[in-house]
Design goal:
- The chain is mostly helical and about 475 residues long.
- A three-stranded parallel beta sheet has the order 1-2-3, with helices on one face.
- Strand 2, helix 21 and strand 3 form a beta-alpha-beta unit.
Length: about 475
């Protein structure tokens, strides 16, 4: 069943899409639609992009959103208070303050929904602005149509507009447009403005106040829609890792482990997914479960990763895999050997190798379709390589002349230029071409030349980086 937030989002999108098409038709007729609506027309592609991304996750989101009501209301209030400007630091700060005040914590699944909930909130507000803008355009068009019907020889009054269905009570759009368009009539509109002032004074407000309020409201709408689209652009740059590290108590526990800090984003997400899965299985909340993992790691010297990803016994799977290949191969060979050559036994053995290879490929393809591959844990050394993980890039090659040595060291230098990092070294592991004798006259010459090139490179970069 679709979650109410998803239903609201799709409903908001549908209404915005209809309004966008309405605006496009107007612009094709060279009608001015206003600054607010121009923002919508120029940035509509952002709405499409976010809508498509959400629809791709629609099935999973409907499940995850069940736990979002608490964090949704908090984020909505934060966004409204910031006039819909996206400020990640503020979100992290306020959510941490809420956790501390309420003595609670947000789950990984809740934190992962923050970007999606922000989109829902922005699109909802954008739909509100669109509806208000539509009322403005409708009032503008109605007033333009009525004014065109005013006879040239009479002065206009309020009753003339009321006969055409215009209601000035509690409708600042009509008053604003009337003030703007009737000014062009000059003295013919004096009676109207006099009656309008009397009508407004009876309500305890002046025409000037109504116009100032409407100007301010429209200015605020322009500011809001610009903030919304700027935020929708910035959402693509949102780093969920920062949200996890800044908000999640579980993440802060895990970050106390140096190994976890050096892991890649994909590996960290693998840890989080496993924590969510296993904590539900044992009936503990994420915090309690992670605390138990850390306690086991401290007392039993048993790293968290080994507890989360225990080695599985795959002997049965291997047996099923190879036995299925073997049986299918034998059966197919027996079947086709009858039609291959007159001597069926020879046909069986001739078909054994090609049929076996074909069967292996088919079985492997079927298994990969039903059993998704599991990513391997990886460390992230894109920013720096720690000293205890010093790495040497080695190119093994056969050396026959000095040109070959120079060519390989040029490659190693290129690798260094594109991967400048401490604790990263480069080595040419060479062997001379084969010969009948143990040592050749050119062995020493090539060795000395290689050492010289390595020394020149080390001098050039003022580090001992290259070796032979």
């Amino acid at each position: 069943m679709m979650h109410k937030y998803m239903k609201k989002f799709l409903s908001d999108y549908t209404e915005i899409n209809e309004y966008y098409n309405f605006l496009v038709d107007k612009t094709k007729r060279l009608e001015f639609v206003g600054i607010t609506n121009e923002w919508l027309i120029d940035n509509y592609y952002l709405i499409i992009e976010h809508k498509n991304n959400i629809l791709e996750q629609k099935g999973q989101l409907s499940k995850d959103l069940k736990k979002s009501s608490n964090i949704y209301s908090i984020i909505k209030k934060l966004v409204e208070n910031s006039e819909y400007q996206l400020n990640y630091k503020m979100i992290i700060k306020e959510l941490n303050r809420y956790q501390k005040k309420m003595n609670t914590f947000f789950l990984y699944e809740e934190i992962s929904l923050i970007p999606i909930l922000l989109i829902f909130i922005y699109i909802s507000k954008l739909n509100e602005i669109s509806q208000e803008s539509y009322l403005e355009l409708r009032a503008k068009n109605e007033i333009e149509t009525i004014i065109q019907e005013i006879p040239e020889d009479i002065s206009v009054d309020i009753s003339f507009f009321e006969k055409h269905g215009v209601n000035f009570k509690n409708n600042s759009n009509y008053i604003f447009e009337m003030n703007h368009q009737l000014k062009e009539l000059g003295a013919k509109a004096n009676k109207f403005f006099k009656e309008l002032n009397i009508l407004l004074e009876d309500r305890g407000i002046s025409l000037k106040e109504v116009l100032n309020d409407e100007y301010q409201r429209r200015s605020n709408m322009n500011l809001l829609i610009s903030n919304i689209f700027k935020s929708l652009k910035n959402l693509s740059d949102l780093n969920t890792e920062d949200l996890y590290e800044g908000i999640s108590k579980c993440e802060k526990y895990l970050m106390e482990d140096d190994i976890y800090n050096d892991m890649s984003k994909q590996t960290k997400q693998l840890y989080r997914s496993q924590i969510i899965k296993l904590s539900k299985r044992v009936g503990l909340n994420e915090i309690k479960y992670v605390e138990r993992l850390i306690d086991n790691a401290d007392h039993e010297n048993y790293h968290i990763g080994l507890q989360l990803f225990k080695p599985k016994k795959n002997q049965l799977r291997f047996c099923l895999y190879f036995s299925s290949i073997f049986l299918f191969t034998i059966l197919l060979c027996i079947l086709f050997s009858a039609y291959f050559i007159p001597y069926r036994v020879f046909g069986f053995f001739i078909l054994l190798v090609p049929v076996g290879q074909l069967t292996m490929q088919v079985v492997s393809q079927l298994l990969s379709s039903f059993i998704p591959p599991k990513p391997l844990p990886k460390m992230d050394y894109s920013k720096k390589i720690p000293e205890d993980s010093a790495t040497m890039v080695v190119i093994p090659t056969i050396i026959g002349n000095k040109e070959k040595i120079k060519e390989v060291f040029d490659k190693l230098e290129t690798f260094y230029i594109f991967n400048r990092s401490n604790n990263l070294y480069f080595t040419l592991l060479g062997d001379v071409t084969s010969s009948d004798s143990k040592e050749c006259s050119y062995d020493k010459e090539l060795s000395e030349y290689g050492k010289m090139i390595a020394s020149q490179l080390n001098t050039k970069y003022k580090k001992d980086l290259f070796y032979l």
